Amino acid sequence: MLNSRHETPRRHLTLFNKWDNDIEVSVVTYCALIDGLSKKGLLQEAINYFRTMSDIGLQPNVEVFTALIDGLCKNICIEAAKELFNEMLDNGMTPDKVACTTLIDRNLKHGNLQESLSMHERMKELGMELDLHACTP
Known about the structure:
This protein is mostly helical. It has helices at 7-20, 27-39, 43-52, 62-74, 78-90, 97-109, 113-125, 132-135.
């Protein structure tokens, strides 16, 4: 029986850290790990793994950035999510629709209409259209 909601993810992290020396990890491995940690609310661990990717020669891709942006937004860390979004742009990456609509959705849910409108404008600049997903409460 689990003692807390964090026990299972922490146990998996222990296994991951042991395997990290024995198996070849990839961006996909890290993306799954970061996404899972974020969904469990273990944001600091997710951020730590995100930041250590480059230390082992892996560059986070759009999917990794999006997984962390989603986790930050769902845990009401919208400012950190916007900073990460801007970091993705600074790295020359084009964000996907999921990252954009996640920021629009969370800003709307927290009463930040102007931020949502700004993100919508940015989406249009990137050639993306707003869809029903972003407009669903």
